[in-house]
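Entry type: protein chain
Record version: 2
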Amino acid sequence: MAKRGILPNYLNKLFIMKLSASLSIALIVLIADLASKYWIESLLEFGQSIPLTSFFNLVLTYNPGAAFSFLSDQAGWQRWFLSGIAGSAAILIIYLLNRYKQEKLFCLSLSLILGGALGNLYDRITLGHVVDFLDFYIGAYHWPAFNIADSAIFVGAALMIYDSFRNRENPQQSEKENH
């Protein structure tokens, strides 16, 4: 029986994150994101804020730009530019999910990023801006408002960074052992 990596095929199948599972995770993120944005837009008017704690508000705001309102002051070309980037990234992520399905944590991180990217892409294409509503602050300093899609992208990126350091062999140590 041929081996794939270090595990025999029959064991390898137990440790594979199927593409359908990865896409299901992305779909759950997408649905949660779109449902939360629909709910907040039905609850608040643009600019309205509901204080919930001494450090957190719900606020309805729109971001025509990218993260931290980057490019938000442009004439509108950024809508299609950022949509093209998100669409291209989604295609690449689906390819990577299929290619590296044996890497569970990597696939989970990509699934979260894909779901978040698609949530913001939907907003950008249909509305021309992204709906943001989570407002954390300390005193008078407010972190830029964000949404569930942004949160999923952040968590996915953090997991990807963690995965890049996890269970990696020290190249210098391996080199010493081989001599």
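Comment: The beta strands are 3-4, 7-8, 49-51, 56-63, 130-138, 141-142.
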